[in-house]
Backbone:
């Protein structure tokens, strides 16, 4: 099985940048999208040219904002939208699909924002999301949590750690602590597990030619419940794939 996660930064715009060809080339069994910036109907329409997938999408109340979706070759036996907590489910940030052998959670974690205005809310989100996925992990099936977690976890995950530490959203100690707490509660970062010393990024600023110079951040992850990492045959970051300011990440098991 092959799973891909891709923050498309607008799924309709991404279609115009070759998304359909990318999906055909990647040939994944499950594709998780973040920042679709579209309603569920618009997501389904955007993916209509790619055959063989069941699409489950979740949109924000605010038009053209946030949004997540899971496209899968196998029809899920169950689909849940949001994390079931008041105040956290207005932005279309989580889709959970239960399959025969695995549960997949697609998440677009809130950014702390310019000037870190939402850092307080981000802390609330991290705690609520951790509670949600840890409850899922108590079930019979292994769980995969994937998406844009909007945090560079360690200095190896960001091109300029000293310049950004506690100065830029996505690399504050609070956000790092949130990721630490999630992993400590029973999750494995598959890419770092398989490639402990590899420097690769999944997002680049659209300013100053950052991608061409590879001045990036690794903020897109595939996490799995502890024990399931033994079944993961490969974990990868496809930074040669264009079409967004992010690139796809994924695993094979």
Residues:
């Amino acid at each position: 099985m092959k799973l891909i996660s891709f923050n498309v930064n607008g799924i309709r715009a991404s279609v115009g940048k070759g998304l359909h060809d990318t999906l055909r080339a990647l040939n994944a069994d499950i594709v998780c999208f973040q920042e679709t910036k579209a309603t569920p109907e618009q997501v389904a329409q955007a993916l209509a040219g790619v055959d063989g997938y069941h699409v489950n999408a979740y949109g924000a109340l605010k038009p053209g904002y946030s949004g997540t979706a899971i496209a899968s070759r196998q029809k899920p036996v169950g689909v849940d939208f949001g994390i079931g907590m008041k105040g956290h489910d207005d932005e279309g940030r989580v889709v959970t699909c239960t399959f025969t052998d695995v549960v997949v959670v697609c998440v677009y974690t809130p950014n702390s924002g310019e000037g870190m205005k939402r850092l307080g809310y981000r802390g609330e989100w991290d705690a609520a999301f951790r509670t949600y996925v840890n409850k899922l992990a108590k079930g019979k099936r292994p769980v995969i949590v994937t998406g844009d977690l909007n945090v560079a976890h360690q200095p190896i995950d960001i091109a300029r750690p000293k310049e950004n530490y506690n100065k830029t959203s996505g690399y504050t100690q609070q956000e790092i602590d949130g990721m630490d707490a999630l992993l400590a509660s029973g999750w494995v970062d598959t890419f770092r597990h398989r490639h402990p010393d590899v420097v690769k990024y999944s997002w680049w600023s659209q300013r100053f030619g950052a991608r061409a110079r590879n001045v990036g951040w690794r903020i897109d992850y595939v996490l799995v419940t502890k024990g399931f990492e033994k079944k993961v045959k490969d974990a990868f970051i496809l930074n040669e794939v264009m079409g967004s300011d992010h690139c796809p990440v994924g695993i094979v098991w």
Observations:
- Helices lie at 11-15, 19-26, 40-46, 119-136, 161-164, 173-184, 190-194.
